[in-house]
Amino acid sequence: xxxxxxxxxxxxxxxxxxxxxxxxxxxxxxxxxxxxxxxxxxxxxxxxxxxxxxxxxxxxxxxxxxxxxxxxxxxxxxxxxxxxxxxxxxxxxxxxxxxxxxxxxxxxxxxxxxxxxxxxxxxxxxxxxxxxxxxxxxxxxxxxxxxxxxxxxxxxxxxxxxxxxxxxxxxxxxxxxxxxxxxxxxxxxxxxxxxxxxxxxxxxxxxxxxxxxxxxxxxxxxxxxxxxxxxxxxxxxxxxxxxxxxxxxxxxxxxxxxxxxxxxxxxxxxxxxxxxxxxxxxxxxx
Amino acid sequence: xxxxxxxxxxxxxxxxxxxxxxxxxxxxxxxxxxxxxxxxxxxxxxxxxxxxxxxxxxxxxxxxxxxxxxxxxxxxxxxxxxxxxxxxxxxxxxxxxxxxxxxxxxxxxxxxxxxxxxxxxxxxxxxxxxxxxxxxxxxxxxxxxxxxxxxxxxxxxxxxxxxxxxxxxxxxxxxxxxxxxxxxxxxxxxxxxxxxxxxxxxxxxxxxxxxxxxxxxxxxxxxxxxxxxxxxxxxxxxxxxxxxxxxxxxxxxxx
Lengths: 286, 255
Prior knowledge:
The structure holds 2 protein chains of 2 kinds.
Chain A: H1 3-57, H2 63-77, H3 82-106, H4 113-151, H5 154-160, H6 165-202, H7 209-219, H8 224-249, H9 257-285
Chain B: E1 6-14, E2 22-31, E3 36-41, H1 47-54, E4 64-67, E5 70-72, H2 78-85, E6 87-90, H3 103-115, H4 119-132, H5 148-160, E7 166-170, H6 178-193, E8 204-209, E9 221-226, E10 229-234, H7 236-241, H8 245-253
Parallel strand pairs in B: 3-8, 3-9, 6-7, 7-8
Antiparallel strand pairs in B: 1-2, 1-4, 4-5, 9-10
C-alpha cells in the first residue's frame, strides 16, 4: 500500500478503535453504575426492613426516652421549617397559581381551573417541594450529625450500653420526618392556593374566595386524600431512611461525612421522583 | 458452677474497620469473676479491638467468645442487649460521650433507657453518682466542653451507672496528670475490693494499656498482645520476671 494512503488510514483506524473502546468503556461504566444503584437500593431496602422491624418490636419500649426525641425531631424538621414552607408556598402561589388562574380567565376556560390546580399544586408540587425543603434544610444536617456520631464511635458507645442505635437514632427521625412532611404539605398547599387567589383578586379575578375554593374542592376526588397521605408518608419515610442509612449504615471516617451528605441528597431526590412517578398511573385512572 | 465471665476459645480478633484483617490470632483466655486483668501491648497491637470483641461489639474470625456463658455476637436481639447491660465499657480518649448532651444526660441515659424513666425521676440518683466521681459541679456542662481527664471519668460514671458485673477500660491512665492517675488507681482498687455502691462484690476488671508499669499495683493477672500473638503471662511476679525479649522491651518502653 502507498505509504501516504497507509498513513492516512492509520489514524482513522486508531480513531475508530478508540471510539469503539470508549463506547464499550462507557457502556461498562453505565453498567457499573446501574449495578451500584441496584446494590444501594437493596441495602436501603434491607435497612428499611430492619428499621420497621425495630419500630414494630420495640413500640412503646423506653417511651420516656424515645418520645422526647420524636418531639425534638418534629420541632426541628416540622415547626422550625414551617416559615420557609409558608414562604415558598406563597411564592409558588404568586408565581404559578395566580398566573395560571388569570390565564384561564383570559381564554375563557375557568372550568379547567379546579382540575389544573389540584393536579399541579395538590398532587405534585406541594408534596415534592416540601420533601425537598425538609431534605435541604434538615436532612443534610441530620446526615452530618449521624455520620459524625458513627465516625467518632458514639454509635458503638450506644451499643456498648445495650441501647439499640436503630431504636434510639433512626426511629425518632423516621417518625419525626414523616409527621413533619405530611403536615407541612397541607400548609404548603393551602398557602399556595391562598396566595394564588390573592394575586388573581388584585388583577380583577371575578370570583369570591368561597367560590374559588368550592371550584377547587369540586375537582378533588375522595381518592385524592388517601393518595396524598400515602405519597407524603412515602416521601417522609424515604427521606428519613435514606438520611439514616447514609449516616449510619456504613463505617466511615470524619472525612467521608461530606461525601455521605452529597450522596444522600442525590439518592433522596431520585427516590422521591421515582415514587412520585409510581403514583401517575393511579392518577390517570381517577 | 458459675461460667467464666469471659471465655475466648481460639479466637482471631480482627481490625474494627476491616473485618477480614486479622489483628491477633489464637486468643485462648478465661476471665473468672472478681479477677483484674491488665492487657498490655504496643500501640496498634490490637488491645482496643480485643476489648471491643470481648464486649460483643465486633465480629471475629473463627473461634468462640462467651460472655457470662453466652456466645457473642450471634445472639442478636434481646439476649445480647441483656448481656451488654452487665458490661461497662470505657472507651479510650474522651470516652465517646455524646458531646452535644450534658454530663448529666450522658450518665443518666442508660438508666433512663433501660428503666424507662424520665430525667427528673433519676436526677437524685445520677447527681449522687456524679458527686462520687467529682463531677457534680460539671453536671450541666455539655460533655464536649470537658477536658479529657474529666470526660474519661464521666465515661467511667456512665459505664458504671447500671452496676455492671464486668468493667472494661481502654487506656485508663493515658494522658492523665498525677492527681487523676491517683484517683483512678484508688477507685479501681475500691472496685476490686468490692465497692459498697456496687453490691460490695469484687468487680471483674479488664484494663488495656500500653504502659503496664502504671497498673502493676492494680492488675492481678497480665496478658500481652505482640506481633499478632496473644500470651497470658500470669501474675505480677511472673510478668515482672518474664525473660521474653518482647515483654522486656515493652516494660522498658514504659520507663
